[in-house]
Amino acid sequence: MINILLAEDQALVRQGIKMMIEQHPSFRVVAEVANGKEAVEAYEKHLVDLVLMDVRMPVMTGIEATKIIRQRDPEAKVLILTTFADEEYALEALKLGALGYLLKDADAASLLSSIESCLNGGISIDASVAGKVVPRLINRISEPSGVEMVELTSRERSILQLVGDGKNNQEIAEALHLSIGTVKNHVTVILQKLGLRDRTQLAIFAIRNGVV
């Protein structure tokens, strides 16, 4: 089973989202919290595969909670789910390493698809904010100095291109006839070679350098 931590301050909305999540036979909500502080505490307490995080919550915002969780566990997978199509929120969340920014008016199929994508290393950004956010990310996230594409093997370049195209690990594995584990290992090596923090920066690097 995939364990999901749900952080949402409105009880009725939280119950509705939980019902949508648990339509998937492999997903279960392992903890429900009403603010960012509780989300940080619950992440430490439970075995969590993905955090579904609201933005505007009392005590501590979802952005602040995402920052703390990602600092403590750089491998943490966070998907932002919010009412607000706010590019600043989206920009900040993605810079902190969130793997997606989804609006609450999404249907169950879109929500489940986004969760699956994030679990597989993909990035999901709602179409209403993607057009504004992606160009700003490309301009604002600086690439490491001295990076040369020649450091990458042809296999690594192929994987980098597919990451830049928004493909998740499963899709990359199928496209290149590799196992998911092999793809994950390659992505880790590419990140280390380029001195990048996470998959979001890797996708942006691919776009900035014309790999895509």
UniProtKB/TrEMBL annotation:
Subcellular location: Cytoplasm
Pfam families to which the protein is assigned, alphabetical: GerE, Response_reg
Record carries keyword Heme: no
GO MF entry, a single one: DNA binding
CDD domains documented for this protein: LuxR_C_like, REC_NarL-like
UniProt superkingdom: Bacteria
InterPro entries tied to this protein: CheY-like_superfamily, NreC/VraR/RcsB-like_REC, Sig_transdc_resp-reg_C-effctor, Sig_transdc_resp-reg_receiver, Tscrpt_reg_LuxR_C, WalR-like
Domain Response regulatory: 3-119
PROSITE patterns with a match to the protein in the record: HTH_LUXR_2, RESPONSE_REGULATORY
Residues recorded as bearing 4-aspartylphosphate in the entry: 54
A biological process from GO: phosphorelay signal transduction system
The keyword Phosphoprotein belongs to this UniProt entry's keyword annotation: yes
Residues covered by the HTH luxR-type domain: 145-210
GO cellular component: cytoplasm
Protein name, entry field: Response regulator transcription factor
